[in-house]
Amino acid sequence: MSGGKKGGFLVSSHLQGEAVQNWREFVTYLTYPIKARDYSRWPEKPEGWRAVTEAYSEELMNLACKLLEVLSEAMDLEKEALTKACVDMDQKVIINFYPKCPQPDLTLGLRRHTDPGTITLLLQDQVGGLQATRDGGNTWVTVQPVEGAFVVNLGDHGHYLSNGRFKKADHRAVVNSNYSRLSIATFQNPAPEAIVYPLKVREGVKPVLDEPITFSEMYKRKMSKDLELARPKKLANEKQLSEEELKQETNVKPKSFEEIFT
Ligand SMILES: O=C(O)CCC(=O)C(=O)O
Predict the structure, then answer these.
(1) Whether pLDDT at 181 is above 90
(2) Atom 7 in ligand 1: residue holding the nearest Cα
(3) Who has greater pLDDT, 172 or 232?
(4) pLDDT-above-90 percentage for the chain
(5) d(CA 145, CA 123)
(6) What separation in Å is there between the alpha carbon of 249 and the centre of ligand 1?
(7) Is 191 left (phi over 0), alpha (psi -120 to 50) or beta?
(8) What does the alpha-carbon distance between residue 156 and residue 164 come to, in Å, rounded to a whole number?
(9) What is the per-residue pLDDT across 8-34, written as a single tens digit (0 to 9) for each?
């Protein structure tokens, strides 16, 4: 099994040029649409892993569809509104392993981020390390693990569809020096060509987006914004650059949706 564009085993997942690297190893693979599955990138061991994974993915796809129905109703929309807005829902799984770390204060398991998709179902072990913030990262609340329970995070897509009424989960993972930690994140995403725009805009309220865009375009913009934020920090640390030099050095072309996301 190898790393690569459509999944596989990877160590850390920092953005190109980012100063802080994530203290994690992970396996990632696409599970939906079924035709996109690339079994050559799925682990061969332990025996039975593939069958269990397929069953797990199907159960989580069903659960996600139910949750989207509930969310649609909470947004005063018809039950099928969110699933329809996803066109044909994609699913991607990441199994995160955070080894115990001798100096946890100097790193993060996974840097602060929001998930790009509609919702994420996260299963975490009993070690704990998931944290969320509501004030832009000034304070962090630990999401205590509950045995057998999923954490459901709203992603950017869900946030935009609700016109910002429902907030995207701004989160990160910290590590500790005593225990390694495992989590499984199942990302429920719209199809790349799905249109991202609020499904209902209340009277007198401004839409959170200027225009409808595709999910693939939304993702590209998100990645290029993240790159912009990450690179200057790293460059400024490495060398004393003038503002003009910094601008030129940070003018990197963002990768396409297909390059990054699949
Ligand atoms: O491990 C965690 O608790 C968070 C995982 C996560 O946010 C991710 O995989 O995107």
Answers:
(1) yes
(2) 172
(3) 172
(4) 72
(5) 9
(6) 30
(7) beta
(8) 9
(9) 777 776 666 666 678 999 999 999 999
Alpha helices in 9-120 (DSSP H): 49-74, 81-85
Q: What is the mean pLDDT of residues 149-170?
A: 98
Tracing tokens 């003038």 back to the chain, one arrives at: 242
Helical spans, DSSP H, in 27-128: 49-74, 81-85
Q: Are 93 and 57 in contact, with CB atoms under 8 Å apart?
A: yes
Dihedral class, residue 48 (left if φ above 0, else alpha if ψ from -120 to 50, else beta) = left
Pocket of ligand 1 (CB under 6 A): 94, 96, 110, 115, 122, 124, 129-130, 171, 173, 183, 185
What confidence tens digit (pLDDT) does each residue in 55-83 have? 999 999 999 999 999 999 999 999 999 99
Contacts 24+ apart (CB under 8 A), 78-84: 81/199, 82/118, 82/158, 82/161, 82/199
Q: Is 242 exposed, middle or buried (0-12, 13-18, 19+ CB in 10 A)?
A: exposed
